[in-house]
What does this fold into?
Amino acid sequence: MKRIILPLGILCIIIMILCCSCGFFGDQNYFCEVDEVETVQIIRLDKYVEGEYRYEYTILSEVTDYSTFVSRLNQLKHSVNWGDPRQMDIGYVVIRIDYRNGDFDLIHPDAQCFNRSNVNQYGYFFFDDEQFDSLISDYIKE
It folds into this structure.
């Protein structure tokens, strides 16, 4: 019996490593390619439109110098969530980055939504709250 338990335990560990959503393989850093950016806005999410898979929102600020903004965003400390990604909640103040190809990112310190080819993908990143809030507050004052 003991001969079976050890190999089964090792096999279970190997399967968990290969099948988990933690992403041992591939890049796990958030990075925005500034050359592809069309607009950057700071918005508040007002309502999720269920059938259309989109948010209605209020624009709090239009970022005019998005090159500097994106550079600062790319430098924010962040970690990776090893569990299920969090969903955006109504009332969140988030960064919306629109790309030239029609894709966009919605970024909050605890949840992200990346729209690629009209398909929503949710992010696994946790940004440092203080740094994130500082970045946003610098641009809401404008």
Summary: The longest strand covers residues 37-49.
